[in-house]
């Protein structure tokens, strides 16, 4: 077998491999980047992640670069525009959740808090490192994702169920769930900050 060992979920699709190698599990602290990934993980619910990766640029265009200030002002004409946009998943509930989540994020900021501190403070600012040997070992949710789901729900966020949040935590590097024989597992085990 040639090339580095990777987590099996990324297969051989170049877009998936690039996402695995360059993004998945890399710690993200930037507020807007965390917000983008949260919206995309919610959009993925019930679909394959590759579907969302293929539509990510469409989402960035349709949702004004995931600028929460702009998204929070979306009205019925924006909803109609988004429902007609083939570049995104045209699901009314997911679109409404994205708009509502922008408003919830701004309300969080008005209280002097951030999404970044809300999640990173739970892990003392450092990624949790797991040592899974197979994809079957990796959980779909954890006590932490259950708690974050409840907390974000209370703050007005939607499409933030525990399974969605665990996938988000993996994506933004709150947890390192690369398999132990994956080359990225070792690369990402470094103190952050």
Cα separation of the termini: 36 Å
User: What gross morphology would you assign?
Assistant: globular
Q: What average pLDDT do the residues reach?
A: 95
Largest sheet: 2 strands, parallel
Order of helices and strands: HHHHHHHEHHEH
Strand content: under 5%
Write down the Rg. Answer: 17 Å
The low-confidence runs, each spanning 5 or more residues with pLDDT under 50, are none
Spatial order of strands in the largest sheet = 1-2
Total DSSP helices: 10
- Beta-strand segment tally: 2
* Helicity, as a percent range: 40-55%
Structural class: mainly alpha
Summarize the structure.
By secondary structure, this protein is an all-alpha fold.
Word description of this protein:
- The chain is 53% helix and 2% strand.
- With 193 residues, the protein is mostly helical.
- It has a two-stranded parallel sheet.
- Helix 2 (31-44) packs across helix 3 (49-62), helix 2 packs across helix 9 (162-171) and helix 8 crosses helix 9.
- The N and C termini lie far apart (36 Å).
List the helices and strands and how they pair.
Layout: H1 14-22, H2 31-44, H3 49-62, H4 68-72, H5 76-83, H6 92-110, H7 115-120, E1 128-129, H8 143-154, H9 162-171, E2 175-176, H10 183-187
Helix pairs in contact: 2-3, 2-6, 2-9, 8-9
